[in-house]
């Protein structure tokens, strides 16, 4: 639904200790994301963007503050409930792909569907459809070692989208790619977004950040700028 809030963060803080040092990774972060938005979260190493990504992806909980994903308060959920929410709501794309080397590309893309209990015949159909959308229909039987970096990332995008999640969360998705291949990958994210999926790219690269209509800049655990703040 248009204007539906799919992510809500209010005064989110995250603290942890490294040896005897208290690290304040997030210091009162607040923003909302509407369903169907395309956003980049930008910041240098140590800025807090990875911690923020973990909150959105239901991989971590805040020390204090509100984190709502799909209208659900993650602080009130059990680990099992969080895992279920993560599985049905968020698709992850990482810089290093994380494709299983012992499986071919089709089997890699089918894997999330197996976790959802979908039978093999339907899983294969859905995985083939996802791979066609990223232009890998002629690579189904290839293993990751037989693919280029761009092909691996497209396979990872197919795996992330095969379950039809409402949110795609990409962590430095073009970091290991040359500029032309990275541009093509960003075009795929734009197409995914046009189909109604919320896309969030976490990056330190300002050129990548500028690709999205809305940019959130973070430094020292605080939001410096949010170009979409007027809409929230």
What would you note in describing this structure?
The structure is a single chain. By secondary structure, the protein is α/β, with parallel strands linked by helices. Helix content is 33%, strand content 29%. It contains seven helices and ten strands. It has a six-stranded mixed beta sheet, with helices on both faces. A four-stranded antiparallel beta sheet has the order 2-1-4-5. α5 (149-161) packs parallel to α6 (179-194). Belongs to the ABC transporter superfamily. Macrolide exporter (TC 3.A.1.122) family. Keywords: ATP-binding, Nucleotide-binding, Transport. One of its GO terms (molecular function) is ATP binding. This is ABC transporter ATP-binding protein.
List the helices and strands and how they pair.
Layout: E1 5-18, E2 21-34, E3 38-42, H1 49-56, E4 64-69, E5 72-73, H2 79-89, E6 90-94, H3 105-115, H4 120-133, H5 149-161, E7 167-171, H6 179-194, E8 198-203, H7 206-209, E9 214-219, E10 222-226
Parallel strand pairs: 3-8, 3-9, 6-7, 7-8
Antiparallel strand pairs: 1-2, 1-4, 4-5, 9-10
């Amino acid at each position: 639904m248009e204007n539906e809030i799919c992510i809500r963060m209010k005064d989110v803080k995250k603290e942890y200790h490294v040896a005897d040092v208290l690290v304040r990774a997030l210091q009162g972060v607040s923003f909302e994301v509407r369903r169907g938005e395309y956003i980049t979260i930008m910041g240098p190493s140590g800025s807090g963007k990875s911690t923020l990504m973990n909150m959105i992806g239901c991989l971590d909980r805040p020390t204090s503050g509100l984190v709502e994903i799909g209208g659900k308060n993650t602080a009130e959920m059990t680990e099992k409930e969080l895992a279920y929410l993560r599985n049905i709501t968020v698709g992850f794309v990482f810089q290093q792909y994380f494709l299983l080397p012992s499986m071919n590309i089709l089997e890699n893309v089918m894997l999330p569907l197996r976790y959802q209990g979908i039978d093999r015949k339907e899983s294969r159909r859905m995985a083939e459809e996802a791979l066609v959308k990223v232009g890998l229909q002629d690579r189904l039987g290839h293993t990751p070692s037989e693919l280029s970096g761009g092909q691996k990332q497209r396979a990872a995008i197919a795996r992330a989208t095969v379950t039809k999640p409402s949110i795609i969360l990409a962590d430095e998705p073009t970091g290991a790619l040359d500029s032309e291949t990275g541009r093509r990958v960003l075009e795929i994210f734009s197409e995914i977004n046009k189909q109604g999926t919320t896309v969030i790219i976490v990056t330190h690269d300002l050129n990548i950040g500028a690709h999205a209509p809305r940019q959130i800049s973070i430094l020292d655990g605080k939001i410096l700028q949010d170009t979409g703040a007027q809409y929230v």
